Structures are given as structure tokens and as C-alpha cells.
Give the backbone structure.
Amino acid sequence: MKHRIVVLGAGYAGAYVAENLARRLSPAETEITVVNAEPDFVERLRLHQLATGQEIEARQLADVFAGTGIRLRLARVTAVDPERQVVAVAVADADSGGGAELGYDTLFDALGSHVADCGVPGVAEHAFDVTGRPSALRLRERLDSLGRGAKAGVCWSSATG
């Protein structure tokens, strides 16, 4: 029986791990499945550019993994059961094979981070982030609506900030 590797998330970390494993391991002995809720690869490091008006092509994960032997499962992870070594998923796309449980021998969690407002009043209603395409486009729309010379505050210290 093949060793089943499941990678949760197809951002930079998940895609990197899956592609490296696919190059290093024998397809006769291993099966690599990447689970991601969205069909496109998000270049998170460039989302600030999208938010400020530059166009960034959304590369399809099917194209990214084409020819690698990596199976792509478009689904949202709903639970992980380490005792049974299964991941429960809900369908993200009708063509992905439905909701189910995926068995694994090795599991990589590369689902990434998310924004936390830390309970600060007003953050959820008034602040913007660039953690995904939808949120970057929301910020872009807001910036486009401001008049010339308008001011905006930046409240983070990462490279994007």
C-alpha cells in the first residue's frame, strides 16, 4: 500500500512541501494530496500590490501542480482526527469529488494564519487586511473611493506595512 501524504493548504508553504516531496519520493510508493479551499494560488506576499491597484494574475493550482503527480482536492478542512488518521473535508467545488474523509499516514498542516482583531473595538468594522485576494480587493475598493490627498493609517510593522 502507498504511503499517503496529505498537505493541508496550498499557499507558499503547502505548495513548496508538496512539490519537494513529489520530486524526492517515488510515486510508486507515495501518494500526495493537497487540500485547499480555493482553486487559485494566492501570492500572499504580493497582495499589497493588488490592494494598491496593480493587477496580479491568479495562477490556478491545477496548473501549478500539473505534471507533478500531486492530487489537488478542492475542499475546506472541517476536522482532523489524529487517532484515526483522517481529515474531514467539505466540498469547495462540485468537481472535487464531494465531502468526505481523507486518510493519511503523514499530515502537513500549512493552512496559514488569519487576522485576529484581539477584541479591539472598531477593528472588525473599520480595519482592512491583505491576507487574501478578497480582503485585498476590499481594501483596493476603499482606497479607490478616497479622494486625492486622502490619508490612511497603517497599523502593522511587517514588510507589507
